[in-house]
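Need residues for this backbone.
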């Protein structure tokens, strides 16, 4: 069942039914000020860090679901309703939510009153803007009351939801006309406040939640709305809120509109107050004055659209399949940008108080946005590298505000360092900026230990070689890509973190997955050295890679597929010998991507095994058979009920690895079949089963062993975004940036006869046409550049602004 439709022309998803299977959200903001917004106007806002600068409250596992947000209430006689349906849940006569790129428009109609909420965060200011337009479509006059409402968070979201003995007494506000200032803790160590203003005079206001809601009231029937006016309350402690009230007399057909802004304002410390306890509002005035008129509001929106259109115009595909087009051209690319901004911090499944920036996560996310924002990608690589430890190991996470490695979780996740090579190589292939390797970058954020970025890559490479186990495979440490395969943990006490319990550096447990990574990214490292003319070292690196390839085929092969690991006792994991968890997806994908076993037939066997044992109608499960009981030697993976998360869930992140593997093998039909299975646009028709947004990838879909097979969870913040974008554009469409040019080598279904791509690469727009007259799945027989035949191979970089490329497959 569908709950809406794609509007590709406007780059919007249009939700037509408010009771979506789960809240379907959007991200507003592209730099420092962000808002998560659901299709019923739920969500929250923060500045830079969702934990430390939370501006409004959000209760995650609340009942009813998704009640906190940016709601507008209408009181029309005895009927109270919201244009977004929540939280009052009065049935609407008409409803629509358009989620666009960086903005959303929610429209609701009830008893001839139409209310439209247009919301966005402008490109250059720290403010959530909304314009509320009210139209009386009746042929008689109407008298109604309109209310806005937000509930402030007392900044540190963790403290705000736990330290009540303090924070019930700290809340402070000021009011000036239609502007409500939330200034909790400003009297002490903060020099920032929030302002919630309207560009029209209010008839009443509230800043105390008790006054607006009633002490025992609820968002479903706030006391102020029921009474038709607010109490002009000033909050002292408890729960500071912002509420505006407008009493409207609307003639037949008349329209009223008001702009409401929620801004974040910083004031230089020495200018904080203008009188005892009176905050300096001049910075807020300056911000508000930028968004007072409709014209200003519209200009901000136009700028935002321009920003997104330009950003996305660097990769545009036209195939006969509209789902592919809309995912690549709009939604998948957009999600990659969201992962750039959020890493894994704030979504409807990530509370914003838990995880900062993941080392491996951020490196992989980069694969999906490097072509859109190469300069920011460069900065990101240098930030990540600066957290790397001197021995080449990595802090598993770092904090976005401080950019320092997070010592609570520490390191010992032995795949982490190799991802630094992966993202740096992708960056160089995209930009040709070899100079990044000369950048002097700290180790462990200590400037005295700084060294060129190339040295960081060298230490990443050597870290694997310096940490080999009994079979000469890489030691797994606390975990590899699969955070939940904790072979050195042995946790017996509830509540212990599986990731940081036990010795991080077990001397026995080994990972075949990291071995595959080493072959893939170690080879990329060797290629870099070779390109730089560091020939001898390059040769040594290639040798180490070849040696690891042999080791994988010897010790990492189970007979029909690649083994997953050896546990702390040297027992096989992911083997036919195992009682459960006989085969895992990760080494099949990574080893084949690394080119292991392609000539020898191992790769084909492994892919056959994946098809037979792991494939389902909704995607490939992570392992099979699922673990049915908790296993001390395996850790978190076996803590999940069968079919969920890493225990045989369909982990969308590594499905693209198999798609890549299939495309390397030339299987275009199979690659595309697999692509469709997890691609949200293709699941739109079964939204009642899939449940998460049809325009965003989710981390996990319940696997075949789960009672809720096919149900998605954890949408938005997942490495799936980057990997599916990469596999579709590079693996299937075959447009691969390389050191010295752009390679076009598609692997497509045999039924596809033609497609075109506009690809911006090193400041040149390549207009690429691919024809497939013989209906092959892979293989290029001729290439023309600007009308002339050229040898089949990479198309060299040029100074021209535009280049046409015609590729004939066959
Ligand atoms: C983490 C990734 C990890 C994946 C698989 C995600 O939640 O962010 O770093 O690779 O789970 O365990």
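Answer:
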């Amino acid at each position: 069942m569908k709950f809406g439709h794609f509007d590709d022309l406007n780059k919007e998803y249009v939700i037509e039914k408010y009771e979506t299977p789960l809240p379907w959200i959007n991200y507003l903001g592209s730099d420092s000020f962000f808002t998560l917004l659901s299709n019923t106007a739920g969500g929250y806002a923060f500045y830079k860090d969702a934990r430390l600068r939370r501006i409004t409250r959000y209760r995650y596992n609340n009942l009813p679901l998704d009640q906190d947000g940016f709601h507008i209430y209408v009181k029309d006689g005895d009927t109270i309703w919201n244009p977004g349906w929540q939280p009052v849940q009065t049935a609407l006569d008409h409803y629509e939510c358009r989620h666009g790129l960086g903005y959303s428009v929610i429209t609701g109609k009830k008893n001839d009153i139409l209310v439209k909420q247009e919301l966005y965060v402008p490109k250059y200011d720290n403010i959530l803007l909304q314009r509320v337009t009210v139209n009386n479509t009746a042929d008689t006059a109407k008298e109604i009351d309109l209310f806005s409402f937000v509930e402030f968070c007392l900044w540190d979201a963790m403290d705000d939801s736990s330290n009540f003995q303090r924070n019930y007494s700290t809340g402070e506000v000021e009011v000036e006309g239609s502007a409500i200032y939330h200034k909790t803790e400003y009297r002490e160590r903060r020099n920032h406040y929030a302002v919630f203003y309207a560009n029209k005079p209010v008839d009443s206001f509230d800043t105390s939640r008790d006054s607006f809601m009633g002490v025992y009231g609820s968002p479903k029937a706030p006391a102020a709305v029921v009474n038709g006016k607010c109490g002009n309350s000033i909050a002292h402690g408890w729960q500071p809120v912002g509420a505006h009230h407008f009493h409207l007399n609307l003639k037949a057909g008349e329209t009223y509109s008001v702009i409401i802004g929620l801004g974040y304002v910083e004031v230089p410390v020495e200018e904080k107050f203008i009188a005892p306890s009176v905050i300096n509002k001049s910075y807020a005035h300056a911000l508000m004055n930028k968004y007072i008129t409709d014209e200003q509001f519209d200009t901000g929106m136009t700028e935002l659209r321009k920003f997104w259109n330009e950003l996305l115009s660097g990769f545009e595909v036209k195939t006969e399949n509209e789902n592919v087009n809309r995912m690549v051209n709009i939604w998948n690319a957009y999600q990659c940008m969201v992962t750039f901004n959020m890493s894994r911090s704030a979504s409807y499944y990530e509370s914003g108080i838990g995880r900062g920036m993941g080392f491996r996560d951020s490196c992989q996310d980069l694969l999906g946005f490097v072509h859109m924002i190469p300069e920011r990608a460069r900065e990101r690589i240098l930030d990540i590298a600066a957290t790397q430890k001197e021995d080449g190991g990595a802090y598993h996470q770092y904090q976005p505000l401080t950019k320092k490695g997070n010592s609570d979780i520490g390191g010992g996740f032995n795949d982490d360092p190799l991802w630094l090579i992966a993202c740096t190589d992708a960056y160089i292939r995209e930009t040709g900026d070899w100079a990044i390797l000369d950048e002097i970058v700290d180790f462990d954020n200590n400037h005295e230990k700084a060294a060129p970025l190339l040295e960081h890559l060298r230490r990443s490479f050597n870290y694997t070689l310096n940490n080999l186990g009994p079979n000469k495979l890489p030691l797994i440490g606390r975990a590899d890509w699969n955070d939940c395969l904790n072979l050195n943990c042995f946790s017996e006490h509830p509540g212990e973190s599986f990731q940081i319990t036990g010795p991080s550096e077990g001397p026995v447990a080994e990972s075949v997955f990291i071995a595959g990574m080493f072959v893939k990214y170690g080879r990329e490292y060797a290629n870099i050295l070779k390109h730089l003319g560091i020939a001898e070292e390059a040769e040594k690196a290639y040798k180490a890679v070849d040696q690891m390839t042999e080791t994988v085929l010897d010790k990492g092969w189970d007979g029909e597929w690649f083994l997953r690991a050896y546990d702390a006792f040297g027992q096989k994991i992911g083997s036919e010998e195992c009682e459960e968890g006989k085969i895992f997806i990760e080494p099949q994908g990574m080893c084949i991507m690394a080119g292991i076993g392609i000539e020898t037939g191992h790769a084909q066997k492994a892919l056959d095994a994946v098809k037979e044992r792991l494939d389902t109608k909704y995607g490939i499960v992570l392992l099979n058979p699922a673990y049915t009981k908790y296993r001390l030697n395996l850790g978190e993976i076996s803590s999940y009920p069968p079919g969920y998360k890493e225990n045989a869930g369909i982990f969308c992140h590594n499905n693209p690895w198999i798609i890549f593997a299939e495309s390397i093998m030339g299987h275009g039909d199979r690659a595309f079949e697999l692509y469709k299975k997890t691609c949200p646009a293709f699941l739109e028709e079964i939204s009642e089963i899939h449940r998460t947004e049809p325009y965003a990838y989710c981390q996990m879909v319940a696997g075949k062993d789960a009672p809720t097979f096919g149900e998605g969870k954890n949408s938005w913040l997942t490495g799936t975004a980057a990997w599916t974008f990469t596999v579709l554009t590079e693996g299937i469409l075959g447009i691969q940036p390389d050191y010295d040019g752009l390679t076009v080598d598609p692997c497509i279904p045999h039924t596809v006869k033609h497609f075109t791509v506009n690809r911006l690469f090193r400041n040149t727009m390549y207009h690429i046409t691919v024809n497939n007259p013989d209906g092959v799945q892979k293989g290029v027989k001729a290439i023309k550049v600007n009308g002339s035949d050229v040898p089949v191979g990479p198309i060299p970089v040029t100074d021209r602004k535009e280049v046409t490329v015609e590729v004939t497959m066959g």
